[in-house]
Design a protein that fits this description.
Strands 1-2-3-4 form a 4-stranded antiparallel β-sheet. The two termini are 39 Å apart. Helix 1 packs antiparallel against helix 2 and helix 1 packs across helix 3. It is elongated. The protein is of the alpha+beta class. The longest helix has 25 residues. A hairpin with a 7-residue loop joins strand 1 and strand 2. The chain is built from 3 helices and 4 strands. 35% of the residues lie in helices and 37% in strands.
Length: 145
């Protein structure tokens, strides 16, 4: 099979999973009233899903995860402000002008996306940050259950 044929084959086999992920990504912030996920975690998940969904090999990666019963792992860092801690920053051109900025720390984040076959749940998504993990089950209508 050629590379184009493989990509088309992967797309046809993963289209329902892909559509579910894409709809979850689109609706992540619109369901805030009945959402199980916090807005901070939703923002992190949005960043990870955006990166994955923009990847040119997303269907092939998703198909391999389905075939091997494995998960797609996304790892990155986010900056988070330290509460109550600030530093004074001088203006680069005006010596008498300065401002306070919050101190930030880098927090490693891991998102694992486990596609599921033959169940009412399409994905198990695990979000791990700062030593705590949250597992979200996503059904075929892209709702977190």
């Amino acid at each position: 099979m050629s590379s184009a044929d493989e990509a088309l084959h992967a797309l046809s086999l993963t289209r329902f999973h892909f559509m579910t992920l894409k709809e979850l990504h689109t609706d992540l912030f619109s369901k805030s009233k009945d959402q199980i996920i916090s807005s901070f975690d939703a923002g992190i998940l949005n960043t990870g899903l955006d990166t994955f969904l923009m990847s040119p090999s997303r269907e092939t990666i998703l198909l391999e995860a389905l075939r091997q019963n494995k998960a797609v792992r996304l790892q990155f860092s986010i900056s988070q402000a330290k509460p109550g801690e600030y530093r004074m920053v001088n203006h680069p051109y005006k010596t008498l002008l300065s401002r306070f900025e919050p101190l930030t720390e880098s927090i490693p984040v891991t998102i694992t996306i486990q596609p599921i076959l033959d169940e009412p749940v399409a994905f198990h998504i695990t979000l791990t940050k700062d030593g705590e993990s949250h597992v979200y089950k996503v059904d075929w209508s892209s709702k977190i259950v």
